[in-house]
User: What shape does this take?
Amino acid sequence: MPDATSDVWTPWMRRALQLAGLAEGRTSPNPMVGALVLDHAGKLVGEGFHAKSGDPHAEVKALSQAGSKAVGGTLVVSLEPCCHQGRTPPCTEAILASGIAKVVIALQDPDPRVRGEGITRLRDAGLEVVLGVLEKEAAYQNRAFIFRVCHGRPWGILKWAMSLDGRIALPNGASKWISSSGAREWVHQLRAQCDAVIVGGGTVRSDNPLLTSRGISDPEPLRVVLTKSLDLPDDARLWDTSLANTLVAHGWDVDQSKFPAGPDRLVLDSVSPLALSQALSKKNCNCVLWECGPALATAAIKQKCIQEISVVVAPKLLGGVSAQTPLSNLGFSSIEDVLMLQNESFQKLGPDWVFNMISSLD
Ligand SMILES: NC(=O)c1ccc[n+]([C@@H]2O[C@H](COP(=O)([O-])OP(=O)(O)OC[C@H]3O[C@@H](n4cnc5c(N)ncnc54)[C@H](OP(=O)(O)O)[C@@H]3O)[C@@H](O)[C@H]2O)c1
Ligand SMILES: [Zn+2]
Assistant: This one.
């Protein structure tokens, strides 16, 4: 009898993960899930993925495509089927009704409403369940969802672009453009995979950024400005919400009359990266992209709001002791104490390099 370590299921699970990934950036607050159905003879008879919150779950889509061919067959799914009534009925009941004999699952759902209960329901009903096929890959694909469910705040990606000598601007502040057009297009794709893009007031004042995915993602990710002072320009590009929504987050102790026309308002008890992260989690964000300057980036790292770091390195030398670097003081006094990162991947984009690192899972 093939189990989770058997190669029999690996290619099918790889296909389920591929299907799940088709909705990357669009399923929040839900996970990405892909599923397929093999008939009793092992022939593919149905496929599906969860496209967005409120839409049918992947299992239900694959089963409805399979119809009566599912009887005695196998369901391969990248996440444990749900067993609770949410915006859609529980998938476990649809599986039982379909006549499926075996369910192959990559990963247990960490959502407290499921967390093994889906598997128990299927096993109690007499179905064979194989758990753990491509588990690591499935957990990586849904790392943002898993992190939010376990920690109550979104997975944070910090991105910056710098010269080979680690500068993000010239001593006079000029910074457009350090990276190539290819790397900037890659940033648009990265934004499309996230639910929100965050900057501090400093970046709005100096760069007047647009922060959209340039139409790759529909709807565009929410654009968020964190400010203590509300000293923001009257006419920033972010205030035009015809392309994407903008949220300006500030505290109670500011002159509210300075609030610009256009964006929505979020008032925080404490103007901190952590308070903002927690508020964005409640607004259904699984994954947020921090595109801020050194002041806010450093505060976000210190408050454990950054789990992944993406750095574009351009083959340019900017020089200048007074030129800005990506981070300000993290407060370390010994090399033994510094933040250690794991290199996940790197790629070359035109003349630039992009390094992707996992910084912390907690
Ligand atoms: N190369 C790159 O990838 C890149 C990316 C972004 C920015 N930059 C550069 O970075 C420079 C701007 O740097 P910056 O550090 O001023 O930008 P920033 O980090 O985006 O903004 C700093 C501002 O964030 C707000 N903030 C709210 N809570 C905070 C907290 N707890 N800690 C720190 N800040 C908090 C404050 O806004 P208020 O002052 O409004 O209260 C603060 O002044 C510009 O030169 C820009 O070009 C470069
Ligand atoms: Zn479900």
The longest helix spans residues 10-21. The chain has two domains: 10-141, 151-358. The mean pLDDT is 95.
